[in-house]
Model the fold of this input.
Amino acid sequence: MAGTGGSRQGRHRRILIAVAVVVLGGIAAGLVGAAMVALLHVVEAVAYGRHGTPLVQAAPPLRRIIAPTVGGILAGLGWWALRRGGEVVPLDATLRDPARRMGVLRTTADALLQVLVVGAGASIGREGAPRQTAAVLAQQIGRRLGVEADLHRTILAAAAGAGLAAVYNVPVAGALFALEILLVRWSPLTIGITAAMSAIATVVAWPVVSTRPTYAFPSAVPQLDALCWALAAVPLTALLGLAFDAVRTVAERRRPRAGWRLPVAIGLTGVVLGALSVPVPNLPGNGQEIMQTAFAGGGSAMGFALLLVLKPLVTGLYVRSGAVGGLLTPALATGAAAGGAAAWIVRSAGGPASVALWALIGAAGMLAVTQRAPLFATAMAWELTAAPLWTVPLLLMVAYGALGSAHLIVRRLRQPPRRGPGPAGPAPRPDAPAPGPGD
Done:
């Protein structure tokens, strides 16, 4: 009996510790998200004289060039100094091998440098900083409270998703990011932990982030043109997503890890971005201005087509330069540009097309392919805009269809070429033995 009572007490204690870690980790993720958003606004105000959208359009041409250049040099110097002291252990590495712990100071410093370079206009996402900072704080909380080892990985992934949820006010997408991308494991326990932490973090960040969706989206009713575009967007976003991934992969392989090349490369990339932003003011940043323009029904076919090409290329340049940051929103913006361009082309030909709806569909398909996570992509696109509920099945169809098409394309490209002149291969030699019954 005593043994049974002791085991029951031990189980209750483990449950209480797990609940405490989830609550404290969610609160920490929310505070991190709020702090990162507030700091980003400060950096934007210093760099461009204001924060929010439109950010770059209101700045004079010279400031558009100086801001990303100086911000890139300063961030590069910071990363040079930081990496001289050793590796900044990424979250993915810790999830694969719990023995490789993230350092609190180094991880936080890396996140702050990400905020600096993004606030100065770099074409990368702002979501990487809160994800890794929330995760490292959850790691410390778990260690202090003595969370079980088998729960440690789930807590870290859930905290990272909660950090994402906090900065964009997307609790469902935050939980799905942890489940579908980081953990790739579904169970009542993992679903409960990720959902709880994302919900807590989102609410904690509301005073700074706001309860409103990130992007204003017009009211809309089901339309045939949206369905037609969704069907066309499946193969198109599959190809665009694979191209985006190819640019990123090549850039990551050639990026400098440390040394004096970091400030030089990131600074020069800032010059390129700044020069391009004079004629294309929506190009800098994580893609927020591209999506806001598309969801407001603005822009033009030529403008979106230009952004469709330039956004992934400039994002790749930043990755190649050694800058660190998220890639979720640049991918979303590229997909939105594809949808916006297609809608304006159809409208110029006299056909019906909702720029906002087409951009939303393109964004969901693109993100599903680049992250290989259709549920997350659907939730992210929908929560960012609070689009009408009837769009959710359409977004799911595009997300799953685009990812499936991408898999088929990759499989086809990896198939070895057929030998011989025809599909049946070369004709057998006259002296060749006849095949046996087991061949």
User: Anything to note?
Assistant: The mean pLDDT is 91. Residues 220 and 388 are 7 Å apart (CA to CA). The chain is about 70% helix and 0% strand. The chain has two domains: 14-209, 224-414.
